[in-house]
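Entry: Diaminobutyrate aminotransferase apoenzyme
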Amino acid sequence: MTDAGASAEALLAQQARRESNARTYPRSLPLAIDRAEGAILEDVDGNEYVDCLAGAGTLALGHNHPAVVERMEDLLERDRAVHTLDLTTPIKERFVDRLLESLPDEFAETAKVQFCSPAGTDAVEAALKLVKTATDNRSMLAFQGAYHGMTHGALGLMGDTEPKEAIPGLMSDVHHLPYPHAYRCPFGLGGEDCWRTSAEYVERTLSNPDSGIVDPAGMILEPVQGEGGAVPAPDEWLREMRRVTRERDIPLIVDEIQTGLGRTGELYAVEHADVVPDVMTLSKAVGGGLPLSVVVYDESLDVWEPGVHAGTFRGNQLGMAAGAATIEYVLENDLEAHAAEMGDRLRGHLEETAATFEAVGDVRGRGLMLGMELVDPDGVPDSLGHYPADGDLASAVQAAAFDRGLVVETGGRRGSVVRFLPPLTISASRIDTVGEIVHESVREAVAADRDLTEAAA
């Protein structure tokens, strides 16, 4: 039994004894959370932290936003149904109304909505089944560096090989194409040459009868790779992928699970490029912090039979109530514009840090989905003059930031990217605090790394 007054240390030790070895965040963020409001977390010992993880981007409005709490309380006080499978309710219809209002007009006009079980990876699985059913094809096109979830089919799409190596029998016939990572270009090219070569490679591959790729059921991509290290795809490249897939009747699936609902400075990241996909996967922010995921797709793909895809928790009414409240608040308050402004402000701080420390190799991302890649200046640079990624240094920066009251995530190549996903409601003063903490955390981590190097010598 847990002591109600237990310390964070005691609770973390208990968690380690009782929970799976697969747990992740507590290993680098030793938090036992007691309270949360807006962009602030408070642990059971009374320590406060600025939350730049926000449920991996789920909490668009931050913790316990009044608009979301009020809507959920109203549902419970009125004895509304909490779980309805796929039976409809006024709450569900309101959510669908708000969701369609938020989508690009051209996409929404012919859109169908499929509710899935709770997680974003469930939406990806549903999207795979959708396009395979509609096209009667089986192979999928995905991209290097991609992350689409951890269930069986979604994991097969992942670009990072390490999480897949221990899992036997992953979905076969997935072809990983080069993503236009400007800083770590797969072709060793700089500037526009990187995305242009990537686009040409994709088109030539799909046009080559000897490529070994049978007719694809679909292409899935992230307009900004999240877990891959906050890597934005150039708008021109996204438009090329849309052209290439449309000309070949390949359904284009855009994974907006982390980018969707304002995070990148537009309501949806594809709007930066004016791209209309065939399928969009959504979760995280659209549930208002509660478990909810959907697939939105063009009606021409709606050929599957009744019951061919289901999920017990696709009728999560609390999630729909919280999601509708979140979408309404984002739309009414132009939070995508605020995210763009605060993202520019945070990027400015990070670029100042990069100018100060050689160990910061790159600052990238869009809106409030940013990343800062840590590198080893003593390593051998690549053909573009970029030093090797340094995951240990990124972890040291994360730890130093945590000690100063800031929660951030790491990701990207070898875990070398410190990632920032604060609530879209975050204030300018909080952004400045984040920038100051990051700067001092990099200073501390770099100094400690230098001391270790000198001691080893």
